[in-house]
Amino acid sequence: MTAIEVRDLCKRYGGTRAVDGVSFTVAAGETFGVIGHNGAGKTTTVECLVGLRRPDSGTVRVLGEDPARRRRVLAQRIGVQLQESELPGRLKVAEALKLYASFYESPDDWRAVLERWGLAPIRNKSFGDLSGGQKQRLQLALALVGAPEVVVLDELTTGLDPIARRETWRLIGDLKASGTTVVLVSHYMDEAEALCDRMAVFGAGRIAALGSPRELVERTGTGSLEEAYFALAEVAR
């Protein structure tokens, strides 16, 4: 079963083609990586997936719906964690989770999410007083409190210390085991290798390569995913 289908997606900003004929599918329950240098087109592609941008041409379907036309319907079925998201500085952690849970018809128990993501000790702490890692962990919990079928995570471990980063990997593994489809935008090759079933390497608005971490390494004849990425990104520039 296909959770996401993208065909010939194009998006321009003025005279620049940020995304130029991108096509891929993501199977239900798959963890799919989106990697590439800044300006490669990955952020615009993800914004089209969640309905924040309307494509100039091509088609995007998430759970069978057009995100540009059915964003409100999809909002009940997908979760999104964007790197630059902010909350009111005085809003407390528990208040934020309770508020976000109220947006959904069938959310997870926000108290259980609070515990699961290690936020219970800071439940009464204001967002403005959180560390960068605590903010990132809260944003991830907010993306999941609606019990989404598809979740889009943009640089989810940025700002986390090594221990918190590994714990987040474990929780994402649990999320995958539950059957949730995950789209993971990352700059970390070790993270992509540990979590992703397949990945798309973006460059110059196109997909330079698509496959599992092992397939990309074998295709480039390199010794690691990081080396494979650099080889593919160089060709794509």
TrEMBL record:
<keyword id="KW-0067">ATP-binding</keyword>
<dbReference type="Pfam" id="PF00005">
    <property type="entry name" value="ABC_tran"/>
</dbReference>
<keyword id="KW-0046">Antibiotic resistance</keyword>
<dbReference type="InterPro" id="IPR003439">
    <property type="entry name" value="ABC_transporter-like_ATP-bd"/>
</dbReference>
<keyword id="KW-1003">Cell membrane</keyword>
<feature type="domain" description="ABC transporter">
    <location>
        <begin position="4"/>
        <end position="229"/>
    </location>
</feature>
<dbReference type="InterPro" id="IPR003593">
    <property type="entry name" value="AAA+_ATPase"/>
</dbReference>
<keyword id="KW-1278">Translocase</keyword>
<dbReference type="GO" id="GO:0005886">
    <property type="term" value="C:plasma membrane"/>
</dbReference>
<keyword id="KW-0813">Transport</keyword>
<dbReference type="GO" id="GO:0046677">
    <property type="term" value="P:response to antibiotic"/>
</dbReference>
<protein>
    <submittedName>
        <fullName>ABC transporter ATP-binding protein</fullName>
    </submittedName>
</protein>
<keyword id="KW-0547">Nucleotide-binding</keyword>
<dbReference type="InterPro" id="IPR050763">
    <property type="entry name" value="ABC_transporter_ATP-binding"/>
</dbReference>
<dbReference type="GO" id="GO:0005524">
    <property type="term" value="F:ATP binding"/>
</dbReference>
<dbReference type="GO" id="GO:0016887">
    <property type="term" value="F:ATP hydrolysis activity"/>
</dbReference>
<keyword id="KW-0472">Membrane</keyword>
<dbReference type="InterPro" id="IPR017871">
    <property type="entry name" value="ABC_transporter-like_CS"/>
</dbReference>
<dbReference type="InterPro" id="IPR027417">
    <property type="entry name" value="P-loop_NTPase"/>
</dbReference>
